[in-house]
Design goal:
alpha/beta, Rossmann fold, Alpha-Beta Plaits, 6-stranded mixed beta sheet, 57% helix
Length: 529
């Protein structure tokens, strides 16, 4: 319905306006009726007004004053002046205020009906434009944040956050990220075709229920996950924010859609550049959750995994998704062999082992959903039986099961159909693996190696691998740096030189931005029992 405000100081005329036409039948709802300008102004704070019928001559505040206020606070509201003066004394001012039309008293019901139909068409066009603008702004926001997290290249048209509808887009330097993961059991029991609708509905529900002292940004990322980014107005607001509201939102969504959410909550970080750190911590909280835990919220600060184990899981996630997206079964086999060795050598406890295997299982399902596939076709219509395979203690059997699942998935949902595309991506990865230690390594170097335009390989890599080449180089360097620390190396300058950094200070800054702690702090945490 289209909300209408009627403001006129003559009671007989107000009654005439209310009864001259069937407003509801025409698609209109009269949300407020005012007898003077002051009442009209007060009603603007309580109602969303689409169309305002204003008498030019009213006590306390005339129609011109009310129209000026509407234009400043709600520029898309359509305004119609009502006047009994045929000389149109206020024509010049009305033109400046861009009013839609005049109603010259007296007028017939037919005249009013004709005008309302015209206004209805204008309102429909206006709402269509507003919807398109909202969608464009949402896409722009998603692309910016996905580029910030390394999932895609930043568009030339979005080179600065200042291009957002609000400038500057952030209200402060305090950020906290949460990652929402949809429970696949709920998806499977219904239909995977419902997933896009569910994601849209979940985002709307989160926006409606999560009031925050500051700003809230909600956007999609690969693997059918949703990121909730809190931008608090100050530190005090962040420190006292009740994150239990996320639990209430999860409970509402479960009652409405029979979908269970798992929500990993990162830690408060300062600065736009630190958003990826909070995001990674939220991912770690998700991956470190125990299958025995109750509830939907998992806090990074509460994770009991050893620090190095947590980031081992995060890097394992990257490796598995990269291999799936490039249809590399042999790489997946090597990953599982390394995982088996890691678990047996470092004697991970049973809860940690089950968490890791369940996480990889979920990644495989996420890949199938990413390819618009049907998970039940892969799981032979028995999700629970497959999920329970990891409850036992046989590490080798669990790895063999995952390999057979990977084999089945890639046979049906190969990520890359073009052999040429696959060759290019493999060459890019091979070149990075052989040259990540060079501080001059660039996308242009890689393009020269594969004899293709750099913009083309950027698009190709991002399309299939769901991340940028620049971020892949960074990930490769950081994983090697972490491994050197894991192996006991403590000379930061030496580690920097082996991973492509001339300046050890800059390397430490990059390491802290990627992992959330400095190399020295990581080394200390690794050595703690």
């Amino acid at each position: 319905m289209i909300n209408v405000l009627i403001a006129d100081d003559e009671i007989l005329f107000r009654n005439y306006m209310l009864t001259a036409v069937d407003w509801n039948e025409l698609g209109f709802s009269i949300c407020c009726v005012a007898q003077n300008g002051e009442e009209a102004l007060n009603s603007l704070t309580s109602f969303r007004v689409d169309i305002a019928f204003l008498d030019i001559n009213m006590p306390y505040a005339d129609g011109i004053s009310v129209a000026s206020r509407i234009r400043s606070e709600s520029p898309d509201t359509l305004i119609v002046f009502i006047t009994g003066y045929s000389d149109f004394t206020y024509t010049q001012k009305a033109i400046q205020l861009k009013i839609e039309d005049y109603l010259l008293k007296p007028f017939s019901p037919e005249d009013l009906t004709k005008l309302l139909k015209q206004l209805k068409q204008k309102t429909a066009l206006l709402r269509s434009r507003q919807k398109a603008e909202r969608q464009a702004n949402q896409l722009m926001m998603e692309q910016y944040f996905n580029s910030l997290l390394g999932f895609c290249e930043q568009s030339p048209g979005i080179t600065s956050p200042s291009l957002f509808p609000d400038s500057p887009w952030n209200i402060s330097e305090y950020f906290m990220a949460a990652v929402v993961e949809i429970g696949y059991l709920g998806v499977i029991e219904s239909s995977h075709e419902n997933l896009p609708l569910w994601k849209f509905s979940i985002q709307n529900c989160l926006e409606e229920t999560l009031s925050v002292p500051g700003k809230l940004f909600i956007f999609n990322i690969p693997c059918d996950r949703i990121v909730v980014l809190f931008n608090f107005k100050d530190y005090a607001s962040a420190a006292t924010y009740p994150y239990s509201r996320l639990q209430k939102a999860a409970d509402l969504i479960r009652s409405w859609f029979s979908v269970t959410l798992s929500i990993g909550i990162g830690e408060l970080e300062k600065g736009i550049d630190s958003i990826p750190v909070s995001f990674k911590k939220a991912l770690l909280a998700l991956q470190a959750r125990s299958t025995k835990e109750e509830g939907n919220l998992f806090y990074h600060k509460d994770t009991d995994l050893q620090f190095s184990k947590g980031f081992y899981n995060l890097e394992l996630h990257n490796q598995v998704m990269f291999a799936l997206r490039q249809n590399n079964l042999s790489e997946l086999s090597e990953i599982l062999e390394g995982l088996e060795k890691e678990i047996l050598t470092k004697h991970y406890d049973s809860d940690t082992v089950q968490t890791i295997f369940t996480s990889i299982f979920s990644l495989c399902l996420a890949f199938v959903m990413e390819k618009d596939g049907n998970v039940m076709d892969i799981l032979d219509q028995d999700f629970v039986r497959y999920q329970s395979c990891f409850a036992g203690s046989d590490i080798r059997e669990s790895c063999r099961f995952l390999y057979s699942l990977f084999e089945k998935v890639l046979a049906r949902y190969s990520s890359i159909k073009s052999t040429r595309s696959l060759d290019v991506i493999r060459k890019v990865q091979e070149y990075v693996a052989g040259h990540y230690m060079e501080d001059t390594l660039s996308v242009e170097d890689i393009a020269a190696y594969v004899i293709l335009d750099s913009s083309y390989i950027r698009k190709l890599f991002n399309k299939y691998m769901k991340c940028t080449i620049t971020n892949f180089i960074l990930t490769t360097r950081m994983e090697h740096a972490r491994q050197l620390l894991e192996d006991g190396e403590t000379n930061i300058t030496y580690i920097a030189s082996l991973t492509g950094y001339k300046d050890s200070g800059y390397f430490s800054k990059c390491f802290k931005k990627y992992y959330g702690v400095s190399p020295k702090a990581y080394s200390h945490l690794r050595s703690c029992p």
